[in-house]
Amino acid sequence: MNLRKAASTSKTTGATSSKKRAGRRSPLATVSLILVGLLTTGGAYALFTSTATADTNTGSGASQSQVNEGKKLFAANCATCHGLSAAGTASGPSLIGVGSAAVDFQVGTGRMPLAADGPQALEKPAQFTNAQTQAMAAYIASLGTGPSEPSSKYLGADGNAAKGAELFRINCAMCHNVAGAGGALTEGKFAPNLKGTSSKHIYEAMLTGPQNMPVFNDLNITPQDKADIITYLKYLEKNPSPGGFQLGDLGPVSEGLFIWIFGLGAIVAITVWLTARSN
């Protein structure tokens, strides 16, 4: 009896041990799963960041030959102030990370190369062709991430002009005037007149914040909002003031001054003429 019971107990214990061994996960399997997870996550992150960096750096997918040409142009025309490696000097800031949009704006509007020291760089005829400007933009973009040039779909001035007018009044009119005519700032600086400025340069100015202007990135003002602002500004160019003479679009100050000088002056002149005639 006891022998039978012992044999039965031995069989039960052996079966239980076999089940435990069969259900136990090997330590190597756990390590393998962790490694697979890390490799998958790291690979996905590397792919995402490299794609995003490529899009930001090159903007339009510049070729290596274009980058090389831009490097030569930069060394010959810009390195004096910004350094051979574009890391900046006492005369000019670092350009690493400013992106192709900043280069296209500054060089395309003639503000750079700088003609003379002053409170701010003045717009003047561009010193380089569009191809040369694009080459320098590609070279600077290759040095570090930064805002790329805008897509043409946002530059057609075919957005919502009413929404653009509201956005412009909220974000831009305090410096540029509600009609985009510009205005004076402190220490000899000024916000320029926006009439005649290309859609691309308006967009790039919002995106990069040149000189005294704040940066309006895509989190502050979305690309479509920027397109609406451009639509509003181009609408103003195409539609003259319905009230007649614009007086520089400077608002009630210039209008009041006009009335004070010419209106009251005319009244005084008429009074003098009537008095002289009655005598």
UniProtKB/TrEMBL annotation:
Q: Can you tell me which residues the record assigns to a coiled coil?
A: none
The segment(s) forming the Cytochrome c domain are 65-144, 159-237
Gene3D superfamilies, sorted: Cytochrome c-like domain (1.10.760.10)
Q: Which PROSITE patterns match?
A: CYTC
Q: Name one Pfam family in it.
A: Cytochrom_C
Q: Spell out the subcellular localization from the entry.
A: Cell membrane
Compositional bias of type Low complexity: which residue ranges? 1-17
Give the record's membrane topology: Multi-pass membrane protein
Under InterPro entries, the record lists: bc1_cytC-su, Cyt_c-like_dom, Cyt_c-like_dom_sf, Cytochrome_c_Oxidase_Subunit
Which keywords does this chain's UniProt record carry? Answer: Cell membrane, Electron transport, Heme, Iron, Membrane, Metal-binding, Repeat, Respiratory chain, Translocase, Transmembrane, Transmembrane helix, Transport
Query: Which sequence ranges are marked TM in the entry?
Result: 257-276
* Region annotated Disordered, chain positions: 1-23
Broadest EC class? translocase
Give the EC number. Answer: 7.1.1.8
Q: Which reaction does it catalyse?
A: a quinol + 2 Fe(III)-[cytochrome c](out) = a quinone + 2 Fe(II)-[cytochrome c](out) + 2 H(+)(out)
Q: How does it assemble?
A: The cytochrome bc1 complex is composed of a cytochrome b (QcrB), the Rieske iron-sulfur protein (QcrA) and a diheme cytochrome c (QcrC) subunit.
PANTHER family noted in UniProt? CBB3-TYPE CYTOCHROME C OXIDASE SUBUNIT FIXP (PTHR33751), CYTOCHROME BC1 COMPLEX CYTOCHROME C SUBUNIT (PTHR33751:SF13)
User: What is the protein name stated in its UniProt record?
Assistant: Cytochrome bc1 complex cytochrome c subunit
Q: Per the UniProt entry, what species is this protein from, by scientific name?
A: Frondihabitans peucedani
* Record lineage: Bacteria, Bacillati, Actinomycetota, Actinomycetes, Micrococcales
